[in-house]
Amino acid sequence: MALSSGRTRGRALSRLVTAAIAATLVGTTAGTAMADSPASGSSAARDAARDAARGLSKIATAPAQAAPAQKDGAKSPARGLAAHRAVVAPSAKAPVMPLGAVNASGELYFYGPDGKGGLTSKELVDTGWDGLRAAAHVDHDRNGVADGTYVLSKAEEVWFSDGGAGKRVADDWGQYDSFFSPGDLGGSKQSDILVRDRDGVLFLYTANADGSLPGRKKVGPGWGQFTEITGRGDLTGDGRTDIVARDRDGVLWLYKGTGDATKPFEARTKIGPGWNQFNELVATGDVDLDGRADLIARNSDGSLWLYKGTGNASAPFKSREKIGNSGWNQYSWMF
After folding, report:
1. In this predicted model, what pLDDT tens digit does every residue of 7-58 receive, in sequence order?
2. CA 67 to CA 258: how far, in whole Å?
3. In this structure, what DSSP letter does residue 295 have?
């Protein structure tokens, strides 16, 4: 590819990841309509994002109280959070992050917790995401709020932004068919990246504070048996990051984290069968704001379901609850 084309692609991806993280931080807290946010990458957007991140724990732990209404008189998600007395402050073991959803046209939408166990109305964040195939929010400073975003492009490049200009941190990642961040797996402060290659081998990239991804560590082979691998935060109540994986028979398995990057998971334990009814499993952390990490599942009919976390390794999820009617199949991928 010509150098000029590479530069153009780089600028476009930099803009995308910058816009995404700015919208993430703002949308997670105050629920400001993304279409009304400042221009992508502007200093105003970054300042607002950082201010919102600092204010999230105050909003999340506030008792029921009045909150300013939006200009149109509608209640903001911030007011919903303040009015929901069961809210627990976000943490690294149960972060609060928006659900990102990308449609076939490349439009990126965010859905945030509504303070009632469901999701807010969708907000358009950006367009042009048809050039990407995966993304992952990270919480590098461990305050329970997204402070960075990794994206994997169809050009096999990985880009990172922490609210400033996006930067390329890796390339030649077309070999991987699974890409997500469950949190800190290696005992360091930063959130890590898990990837699976097309031979079914799982690898761990331990992230640095600047978003760089040093050499990978091999977790092990045999992960090609799974049709879905995901997780965000602690599912078992021991403070360590865990993941879940669904096999081809529809059985969901729990992999408890060890906190050791050289051997990040214990032997798997069975959660239960019947998970093939879902065509996508997504973990964004704590959705119902009770301080425990949850799991989102999209049914083949396009409905969306929430499995609330229990913090109990023997039964990590409660019975499912519907949080979205048909229509979620409009999205090509979610994160």
Report:
1. 555 555 556 565 655 555 544 443 322 222 223 333 333 333 233 223 322 2
2. 41
3. E
pTM: 0.79
Nearest alpha-carbon partner for 158 in 142, 182, 175, 143:
175
CA-based diameter of the chain, in Å?
57
Tokens 């040093």 locate to 214
Task: Determine the Cα–Cα distance for residues 297 and 287; give it in Å rounded to an integer.
Answer: 12
Name the residue with tokens 């929901």.
84
DSSP per-residue codes, 230-284: E--S-SSSSSS--EEEEETTS-EEEE-B-S-TTS-B---EEEES-GGGEEEEEEE
* CB contact at 8 A, 136 and 193: yes
Helix (H, G, I), strand (E, B) or coil at 47: helix
| Residues with Cβ within 8 Å of residue 67, at least 6 apart in sequence | 76, 78, 79, 82, 83
Q: Map residue 225 onto helix, strand or coil.
A: helix
Q: How far apart are CA 115 and CA 107, in angstroms?
A: 25
Measured in Å, how far apart are the chain's first and last C-alpha atoms?
A: 29
- Sign of dihedral through CA atoms 306, 309, 310, 313? positive
Give the closest residue to 232 by CA, choosing from 324, 333, 137, 118: 137
